[in-house]
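INFO batch 0412 | record 1 of 1 | parsing
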Amino acid sequence: MAKATLYFPPDFKWGAATSAHQVEGNNTNNDWWAWEHVDGHIRQNQKSGLACDWWGDGFERDLDYAAQMGHTAHRLSVEWARIEPQEGVWDSAAIDRYRYMLTAMRRRGIEPMVTLHHFSNPLWVAERAAWETNAIVPWFERYAAHVVDALKDLCDLWITINEPNVYALAGYVPAQGEMADYDAPASSFPPGKNSLTLAFTVVENMLRGHAAAYHAIHRVQAEARVGVAHNMRVFEPARSGSWLDRFCARNRDQVFNQLLLTGLLTGRYDRPLGVPRWIRGLKRTLDFIGLNYYSRDLVKFDRGQPTTAIFGRSAANPHAAMSDGNYGELYPRGLFRMLKRLALTGLPIYITENGLPDADDDQRPGYLLTHLREVWRAINQNVPVMGYYHWTLTDNFEWAEAWNLRFGLVELNPQTQERRLRRSGELYGEICRRGLIDDDLVYEYAPGLVDEMFPG
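INFO prediction complete | emitting tokens
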């Protein structure tokens, strides 16, 4: 085989992503802490506890690993419950801590991207029904303006809300419902309700909150770049010859992938099971789009679920490689397909999450190589991909799955806080530092993939 090299742009951002509740530890004033302390909500009743100790010295240790790997970017979130522990009461010490984190990144040559809402709400917000009511919109707008004003000298790249679709479906869709098998198990998030109609209301209010925050951020920081992190999956019929399966797959795609995009681009929320609405100030409230991509679903019509049959159910792909915990099929081409789809928006794109649970690290090297090859393909077809944030830097508390799914480039023992860079982290470091993937790297880290990576 001839020598081959896949080059990435010299200004391409290489990094990883984390979220506050999953890494900080002892985040006692939000709805997730309360949720995980009720038996039966979390697998094996595990707790986040100290998490990765980012509110202590764990942050510095993990950031040293990021710098060692040559990361030039990092996506993190700030915790609303720490910053505004009670309505209208601001904790300056929390802001100082986040300033310290961002400064530490900058000192290591790592550019921060800050997410304002990553699944968790302050208790005082949760007690008032959180995103079920549009009363939250001015609260979130005020919070966004406060954070950006306090951190604007250290960050100009902002995500307002992480995965509104997953937040709504995982917290409001019944476990046997049509969306029960996404990366976040249905009804496993707080508040654990059972209402598809309410889930669509939550998405609508998150769109309203995003729009209000977008305009507030630009009033505070004119040069800010503001986006949303959107989880997208590939949906295909389990049986290509079945029009019912094709119908269900299209419906899933419309609800999970397209509904949010249409609202953000046009201002029109085509609410299923309701009347479409125009949301004031929402149209084109994106300076970029963040893509969170993990997997695809094969969809099969299920007449056994009469109320949800139009969305079908997921069917196993007997020919696919699967990640730990049956988390999802390894389908790298889906990343290329979603990047091409988002290119139609005309917006810059950041891959804000991409990864897999792999405790023994036997799949992650190949996953990185094959998915980054699809990113390279997209860039070479003029898709404006600006950066890649691997999920995640260090093994963390993975929501309802707790410590059972290990996504980290860095292995963590949560009991001892001991850390070790995985072999996949060594590979990713080579890619980040050199800005390329060549055949030597593939031979060294995943020799069985040479023909797939460099066909012909």
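INFO post-check: The first strand starts at residue 5 and ends at 7.
INFO record closed
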